[in-house]
Amino acid sequence: MLGLVNPLAIRIMEWSWIPAILIGGALLYILWSQEKLDQQIRWLDPEQPTRREIRRF
Question: Is 38 exposed, middle or buried, given 0-12, 13-18 or 19+ CB atoms closer than 10 A?
Answer without folding.
Answer: middle
